[in-house]
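Holo model, NAP. Inputs:
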Amino acid sequence: MPTVLVTGASRGIGLEFVRQYAAEGWRVIAACRRPDAAKALAGVKGKVEIRGLDVTNEGEIDALAAALADDAIDVLINNAGILHRGDGLGRIDTAKWIETFRVNAIAPLLVAERLLPAVLRGDRKRIVSVTSQMGSIADNDSGGYYSYRTSKAALNMAMKSLSIDLKPRKVIVAVFHPGWVKTDMGGAGAAIEPSASVAGMRRKIGTLGDADSGGFFNYDGERLPW
Ligand SMILES: NC(=O)c1ccc[n+]([C@@H]2O[C@H](COP(=O)([O-])OP(=O)(O)OC[C@H]3O[C@@H](n4cnc5c(N)ncnc54)[C@H](OP(=O)(O)O)[C@@H]3O)[C@@H](O)[C@H]2O)c1
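Output:
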């Protein structure tokens, strides 16, 4: 069976990716920053290997890449993300903005760069990043959320460049908006369950073709405006 690696696998959308791929019999490398505290993850049945990874720690990314030196990853899912809510106009916090950029925009590219050899050894060669519609400039009609919106717009641009750079090596790169999802980040009042979001994204990930590389997709597979 194929192998998927998921970052931010301890809870929310990442945990649901682990559950669904494991239930289908995939080998799942579930990366999370505190394996000892990831109780829900430890309870997932199937071929799940839990690995420690704080995505902002380059040493940990390199250590994971070294541990996977003889391994193949068919689908790499950059899911880990943070949302700093308190940065409306007049409350811009430089440190929070930089932290958000490190987790949401820079780390996914570093993870993709360092794990690329394992992705190239995989049969499917897909790199997926969970972005947000809030990173769409075309869709922004409500303002605010400066650090989050800019970090996801930067992620989108990084992944677009990556899709072009990796085209000769037949790697498909895409970004997905998961919907407004009932997780710690999305809140209890969100529109959809993690199960529906992840089922939709997995369906599209499974059928991504060359023409989809560099695309920005909703969880239901529809294209979104940049
Ligand atoms: N929920 C929504 O409505 C929604 C909408 C649009 C986009 N998204 C995106 O979907 C992705 C998943 O969000 P979610 O709703 O599942 O959020 P969540 O419930 O808050 O979970 C966030 C996950 O990211 C991990 N994480 C945060 N910082 C990390 C770091 N430095 N290193 C490793 N892992 C880190 C967390 O790990 P810990 O448990 O260790 O904190 C947790 O597993 C994010 O990229 C988010 O921006 C979510």
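The chain has a mean pLDDT of 98. Residues 94-121 form the longest helix (28 residues).
Archived with the compound record.
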